[in-house]
Design brief:
By secondary structure, this protein is mostly helical. The chain contains 3 helices and no strands. It has one domain (5-86): Ribosomal protein S20 (Methane Monooxygenase Hydroxylase, Chain G, domain 1, Up-down Bundle), CATH 1.20.58.110. The protein is 84% helix and 0% strand.
């Protein structure tokens, strides 16, 4: 248990941030899985749209500090490469 008022506030703040981070990471995993399922298919428009969504979500997560910027860039690069090699 926290000993001071400020420690109590930090504990509440940390819990909120943890919940938000978990939610954002979960949605990132979902978008990534959706994209990876779309890559082997023949529908080029669907695959390109899925790549755009995951790239946007990764940028937003990096901007909010949920994931490091380098991690977002690495994932975007690897996902784009996967699309390129699948064609």
């Amino acid at each position: 248990m926290p000993n001071t008022k400020s420690a109590e506030r930090r504990m509440r703040s940390s819990a909120r941030k943890q919940q938000r981070n978990h939610s954002v990471k979960s949605s990132l995993h979902t978008l990534e899985k959706k994209y990876l399922r779309a890559v082997p298919g023949d529908n080029k428009d669907e695959t390109t749209a899925a790549l755009g969504k995951i790239n946007s979500a990764l940028d937003k997560a990096a901007k909010k500090g949920v994931i490091p910027k380098a991690t977002a860039n690495r994932k975007k690069s690897r996902l784009a490469l996967r699309l390129k090699t699948a064609k």
